[in-house]
Please model this.
Amino acid sequence: MPHNDATPATPRKHTVLVVDDAPENIDQLCALLEGRYHVKVATNGERALQIVMADPPPDLILLDVVMPGMSGFDVCRQIKAHSQRTHIPILFVTSLEQWDDEAFGLSLGAADYIIKPFRPPIVLARVQTHLALFDQTQELERKVQERTAALRANEERLRLAASVFTNAKEGIFIVDRDNHALEVNDAFTRITGYSREDTLGLDLASLMRSGRHSEEFFERRRQILLETGSWTGEVWSLRKSGEIHPDLLTLSVLRDAEGRIENVIGLFTDLTESKAHESQLEHIAHYDTLTGLPNRVLLGDRLQQALGHCQRQRLSMAVAALDLDGFKLVNDRHGHDVGDELLMQLSQRMGDVLRNGDTLARIGGDEFVAVLAGPDQSGDYEGLIAHLLQAAAGAVTVKGIALQVSASIGVTLYPQDQVDVDGLLRHADQAMYLAKQAGKNRYHLFDIAQDAAVTTQRQSLEHIRQGLAAREFVLYYQPKVNMTTGEVLGAEALIRWQHPERGLLPPGLFLPVIEDHPLSVDVGEWVIATALAQMAQWRAQGMDWSVSVNIGARQLQQENFASRLADLLARYPNVNPARLELEILETSALEDIAWVSQVMSTCQALGVRFALDDFGTGYSSLTYLKRLPAEMLKIDQSFVRDMLTDRDDLSIVQTVIGLAAAFHRKVIAEGVETVAHGAALIPMGCELAQGYGIARPMPAHDFPAWAASWRPDPSWTVASA
Model:
């Protein structure tokens, strides 16, 4: 063998064309594929054909079926009719699930179908598989062409070609124009089980026909072969043993000097192992490993299909969320092995009481969801739910241990409950918790007219109102500093709920409950009054720090906001109003920017200052910035936190700092969590900051000691030099 010192070529990066008119599908597929492949995008069939017909063409196409204008079937037909493009594997990505649609697409030459909503691991596995098969097919076609040329060249090349033909790992056969076998190789015999003597002179298409493909499929394949000279696709073939197996088949036409078909060469690869691997991946992605029941992913798919079917056929269904009562105690007392065996037995029991067409899924731990198809009357589901309760409550023996649990079930009915899949699951879950609260081992029907969530909302509001009256709320203070000078400027006052039973609660657990509710105004005034009282106390101790408080949209838009603020300031005459800063969100001003601007000006006349909080997360219009007379811009912590790794966030931070300078506003960064954040901000022109990298929010009595001991990181002073 000749010596070759050439460096092996770097593997070529494949190009994948995504054709879809839905932006969300394009975004999801691009996010999945980019980095591994070069990705091109077309939003309609016409643009897809332009890309495919241009050089170089893509190596694989993910093609939507239903698109405005030219359909995916039309695009596939034109590509497969082009002799220079017919080899490109096409994977239809569609929500169509009819067997006829799939058969039709495959008969056009498509390599595969991917059903929406697709699972990213499955899409990636199929793309990788078909690109590998595409590369293999291209290489094999090249080999066949070389071998054919060798046969026609001379006797030595004929011998070499025959050797390659015999020893190839891929099955190869040669037929005449009437499809009668002239020759097969050893791999053909190994894959199909038919010996050379079994096949010579026989019609191979009839001999190996599996019954999986229609006559229309074979006729379309024959037409494509006549028109283009080749055909590639997946077929199901019959082994001599009677077993049906999948192949990736490529047919190539050999013509005589007059252009008449003389022979057809077939080259195929057995896909049994790759299909089994793909099936295994799909099973792992869609089924619970412990019980074998559908998991949350497959539940979502089936529930979406069931909902669509009910909508089209005007049928009803019930969705039941089931949680086992007492299962945690079993796990704690007897261990997870016993708990797992209990889950498996109960899953089998509950599945047995359901009907064909119903779905029981395990979505985690001891939580299950049942989709009960087609109860014609609102009470038809009750018998099934009763059977589920009985199945869950029956005694079970595991490793000689007698165990018994029960179930709490929440049920919602469609079409009475006119929501989407997520809404149905959420409502069933809410009803399940009410069943638990009512005593367990029972079911509760979700009441659409008097939604339990409304009751919970009212209860939460009442608890907050009681907490405010009982003085359970406290303020924590997060320091604001100048990173270059080391000056402690003051703090942002942040509300906490010292709940008598649940401990110290962050604002995210209770402020959303009162948003847009009159109670938010009372809480907001309490925050201002408490902050002013603390400022007065600090000032009496010789510490004149500024404090900022957050003002909600509803509070800011109150007609008497400015007068109420004046009354609160009057209670603390020793507090300099300029030390009070009111932080408002951009979005708070959008409903009536003229009114908000007037309120801000009135308050500024009292001496207080304003900051635009979370700047950059709203509309951030230059018009709003110009019309809202805020002295300070606060860069939202989400941009600051990720700016070291996200170039877009870094650009936003730089832009906000630039806007602040252009409009002569001060700027402060939230979310400075590390020294590196501060070192990056200072050269950009932002010296003021707050965040966990400086200090976490703290009680008021801890603030003076912290302020006395805090020093900026040395790298920050270097960065400012």
In short: The radius of gyration is 35 Å. The longest strand covers residues 244-255.
